[in-house]
Amino acid sequence: MSGRRERSPFLSLLAPLLGMLLLTLPATAQVKPPAAAAGPTAEQTLALGERMYRQGILPSGEPMSSIVSGDVQVAGTSFSCVSCHLRGGLGSWEGGIVTLPTNAARLSIPRYWKFPNLSLEERKELKLQNPAARPAYTNETLAHLIRTGRDPGGTDMHPVMPRYYLSDPDMAILLSYLGTLSAKHSPGVIGDTLHFATVITPEVSEDDQQAMLVPIKNYVQRHNQFSSGFGNRMYLGVGGNEMSGAYRKMALSVWRLQGAPDTWGRQLEAFLAKDPVFAMLGGISYGDWKPIHDFCERTQLPCLFPVTDLPVVSDTDWYTQYFSKGYYQEGQAAARYLNGLDDPAAARKVLQLVQDTPQGRALALGFREAWAELGRSPIKELPLPPEGALDVNGLAAILSQEKPSTVLLWTGDSAYPALDALLRKGSLLVNAFLSGRLLGARVTSLPEHLWSRVWITYPYREPQLEPKFSAYADTLLAGLTTRHPETRISTRTYAMVQVLRQALMDMDRHFYQDNLLDRIGMQRDQFLPDYLRLSFGPGQRYASKGCYIMQVGLSPAPKVAPGPAPQVKPVQVPVLLRKSEWVIH
Amino acid sequence: MRRILMALGMTAVMLSAQAPPPYTRTLETYTVPDVVLVNQDGTKVKLKGLLDSGEPIILDFIFGTCTTICPVLSAGYANLQAKLPPGGPKIHLVSISIDPENDTPKVMRDYLKRYRAKPGWDFLTGRREDIDKAMNAFNAYIPNKMSHYPLTLIRDPKTGKWIRIFGLMSSSEFMAECRKAGLL
Description:
The complex is a heterodimer of chains A (585) and B (184).
Chain A: H1 9-22, H2 42-55, E1 65-68, E2 72-75, H3 81-85, E3 92-94, E4 97-99, H4 104-107, E5 111-112, H5 120-125, E6 132-134, H6 139-148, E7 163-165, H7 168-178, E8 189-190, E9 193-200, H8 206-227, H9 230-234, H10 238-244, E10 249-256, H11 264-274, E11 279-281, H12 290-299, E12 303-304, E13 320-321, H13 327-340, E14 350-355, H14 358-373, E15 380-384, H15 392-402, E16 406-410, H16 415-424, E17 431-435, H17 436-439, E18 454-458, H18 467-470, H19 489-507, H20 513-521, E19 548-554, E20 574-578
Parallel strand pairs in A: 9-10, 9-11, 11-12, 12-13, 14-15, 14-16, 16-17, 17-18
Antiparallel strand pairs in A: 1-2, 1-7, 3-4, 5-6, 8-9, 18-19, 19-20
Chain B: H1 2-18, E1 24-28, E2 36-38, E3 44-46, H2 47-51, E4 57-62, H3 69-83, E5 92-97, H4 105-114, E6 121-124, H5 128-137, E7 151-155, E8 162-166, H6 171-180
Parallel strand pairs in B: 4-5, 5-6
Antiparallel strand pairs in B: 1-8, 2-3, 4-7, 7-8
């Protein structure tokens, strides 16, 4: 259960009632109510209420049932409260339909049409006389709204809001949950400042640390300079007061981890206990992000766009928003491309040769899972040593024995010389897939006689189109002495900052950690450095969904201008040529 | 007295602000684009062949993680399927994704499962430019998926024209529109 929820006064009134009601709950529920003799705990009650809100499942284990649009029957398993009101409860706006907040802090005060975000104290201070659209909810009026769609101000909600059939005991459990949902600001909101942290794992070089830290620190510094005297200087009107109430300074802590990854969770918990923060911004590691991901899930701490190519791939985890699935996504793209080729010969017999590294394993896993999802039979996989040049004779023997139509060679630098040697030995190599990210800057140095046989997974925008997008990142790089654009650390950090800026504006003064992630989920598509497109949606945790399949070839010949032929013939150089869509289905 | 009248007037405005606009119904002629999309099983589908097949067709544009409109549209589809008598007329329900990057066949399969979709309801995804062509062809293009609107298109099997319904219908209104179009 959430550690950040606070009891609101109207939950206290419910407690005795819930104690009686929960005794009658059947034991079939997955989140089981407590034994009758022990009595229900608040945690158990809230878990049942949370399940109703998020999954649309009653304490009995049955789906909640409701009516929308007058007479359309809906089962809670199709959609539930969270679908529109979102996880933080602050609601959404989509297609002209506004879903109002349903969190405790907003339900417990009147709603106003004008300046709805001002607190009651601010309204009093500003002598606002606007009538309330509705009074504060009581348990009775909120139950009435959930059942009938009519609020205590007499307004009928839009018919898209489900009208729920709920028994009194079930209603009490749902209300108990709503009484805790985003009731008080999350940790890290201290006075007029939002506190953030970023995390660096011990193996990261000084240059790479600075490539991430400089743009974040520059952003925080500018934000704070801009916010100096914000309320008084710019916003003297009532609307200004409302807006300035949403504005907070920012503070950034840098959490440097030490030692082995299995100790990072404890180190991070110690950091967080000493220095409560609202979210982690970025972060960088060369290795598996899992220890940090798990810490964020455990402590319900949002982490925005860490610089990692080894994220945790999950359909359900919530608290880390990644750029992409990293190496895993390249493996997926290879599977989908191979599956969709018009000529099925290449997919006849596929062999994965996997360097025994986290990167190699992630690539292989992405391919394996996507291949299975496409309904294909499992393929053979063989491990390769984690380091050193590839054993060409050994590879030739494997190819001779297996006779694959396509080899997935998930290794780094050693792949090109090995493939070259194999072909010169007259090996049976037909087609190969390599990882563009593992090959790095040398990706276009593939020997020419291999160009037509080698497909390269490339998870970024086409290189020739990239400069005009990446150039924007320079605006946050003042003070960065050593630049390594090929690492894409600064550009990815710049992209994180852009999404954060928008999310902070959209979050308004509703400083709840789930709301931060909800607001990112509602953002429109962004076109930022590195990835062709970042897209969002409630619960979508990998913003870049694409990965090109490329081949090396000569750059297209420049168009010849009318007039005399140029004396110097334009040079065509090896470049990456796109062979697929950005997203392959 | 004046204050009371003002309060009553304000209440009426507030109520009307919340009341949904009635759906609008127009008859349109559309040319289905010649694009290939992918359904929830990963099978390639020629959109023109599917929509111009002459069988009763209903079409909408949705996406898997939509918050408000799509769930209601999809609940309408599910209710319609549930109300069709066994052995009676078959209506092919088609949903085209407006978030093709996220809506993979697996995501679409899971979505249909959530709505207890029966055979005869296909969810299609594809290349973004093909999706854009489909949206444009039905005058449904939106640059940002969060700004999309509720639209249901019913193909009249006799004339090949499309009944364009803008807005959300109740289940009984949906059935009545299907009857009016000759689908039931």
